[in-house]
């Protein structure tokens, strides 16, 4: 397939900005930042943690059949895995495709059939200098986002037993646990590559262009590989330890405010406990939060109380030209194998 470059050089003339143009540019930068936040938020919904008894990596939903792309080394030696989303919901996945020489694998989660996947940047290759974002769960830190650029193209390297040919070199930092996560084009949110490897020193990473492997992914999706029953290693779900509960509780609260900040009220509402939702309809919840300004979390402290986590926050609500400071406590518990927000307290700080 001919490689067509997505970015083009601009021949726009250079100009000197006036104060009015500076103001317009500032507004444009604010809108661009908000747009980037929305892209990150929407992308994170389809990025998962893939767990086995031997490894942990990342993956992302690539079609509406419930198929998740990851690296072969993440699912090496197993045929069933745990797939965990940002809301702590856990699914069982089956490896339906795995290459022996390309670091690529495909996992199917039947319960995710019909769920909207991430958009792919098909038939286009990014130019050096294009801004990108790498998403994954490095060192167990779920849905971490790092930014950088395409710093090189058509790189070749060997990490036995896998060969990496014509891959992107990226400056966005990646770490163990990020393997299999998506590399997305920053302005569109489309998946352009699969984060796969990094140099032992520095922040140089390598990502497999999605267009180079889409034919193989499509083939596995249409004709899944079969495994001998005696070869299947079951991966039972185990309840996370208390320390992980703390991390998950903090993540849930942060993700809750991220959702509100981009007006994704459905996601925020679904993170509330069943009892909370029984007492407040979605319409009332949306109406109550519709006028909420942008909320920034400044400080976080966590206390475990029995099976629940008390997440204490210092919050700043940016409303127009005014800032309002609050002390808030969100109680996070477990419900149906998910972490949910069960209660909250807000106090205005003068």
UniProtKB/TrEMBL annotation:
Gene3D superfamilies: 2.40.10.120. GO terms for molecular function: serine-type endopeptidase activity. It comes from the Bacteria. Residues 1-35 are annotated as: Disordered. Keywords: Hydrolase, Protease, Serine protease. The keyword S-adenosyl-L-methionine does not apply. GO terms for biological process: proteolysis. Residues 19-30 have a biased composition (Acidic residues). Pfam families: Trypsin_2 (PF13365). This is Serine protease. It comes from Salibacterium salarium. The lineage of its organism: Bacteria, Bacillati, Bacillota, Bacilli, Bacillales.
